[in-house]
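My main concern about presentation is that the manuscript never shows what a single data entry looks like. The format is easy to grasp once an entry is in front of the reader. For illustration, here is how one protein appears when written out as sequence plus structure tokens:
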Amino acid sequence: MTEFKQAPVVGSKRVDAGAPGTKAKVYFTRSIDAEHLIKLYNLVNENIYGKVAIKLHTGEKHGPNILPRDMVQAFQATVPDSAIVETNTLYPGDRYTTEEHRDTLKVNGWTFCPVDILDEEGDVALPVRNGLRLKEVHMGGHLTNYDSLIVLTHFKGHAMGGFGGSMKNIAIGCASGQVGKREVHLVVDDMPANFEEWPMKEQFMETMADSAKATCDYFGKHIVFLNVMRRMSVDCDCAGVAAEEPTIADIGICASTDILAIDQACCDMVFTKPEGDQKDLVERITSRHGLHQLTAMQKQKMGNPQYELIEVE
């Protein structure tokens, strides 16, 4: 393994291995396949035990950008007593009800292992310690049935968040469809029909950080993060077949035990991509004030903004 040399973006907290202060380790590979996904996971999985949830965005029907099923299947097969976990959506669509969600899972090929829809039987309130905007968030009730959580994320753009990394994957993805997601979106009492009228920018980034913190605090050391940077449309996998075609080339896979460090590292790699094909994704992130996700996580002391990026062949 060798350290990956890269010029950081302005404001980045990536540091060289010899710099003073503590640093989180973020492992990186340019190869996007099951072999390397498993290799990186094995570098960070020391505290994963017991019944394991794999939080994955399984996507709307026929979504062109979701993670490859064969890759996820090979990965899941190496994790004993594991299941993919999801929650229903707040918006009407292919995953709005549990019945619709199960049909979508079949269409998209998520049939090779158990898939637990966490809010199928209701939700559970998890506290947000010293939250920026929220005191608690209702998660899918089955979440507390698991001992460990693997956050397997398709890193890409997002219509409201700017980008969807590990933090967004659990902040929205673990919140129950009709209660928790309303809390995170700050539309508990009034949900405008047009989502563009919902609270945006800094407010939304901070409620997402609160929600993600509740899940991170619940699992403690028994949580790891894997970000796969492929097919990075400016749109989330929630958009399904309507998602914009990616204009940025694939980058690779990152793994870490630090949620802030891994999302920071992925943003840095997008912003400094030498080919110059990142314009659309960068515009999506900046126009939504998406980098405030990182600031909010730092305020919440959810991780280390300084990281050492280590390349794995």
Confidence is low (pLDDT under 50) at residues 1-13. The first strand starts at residue 2 and ends at 3. DSSP finds nine helices and 13 strands in the chain. The two ends are 7 Å apart (CA to CA).
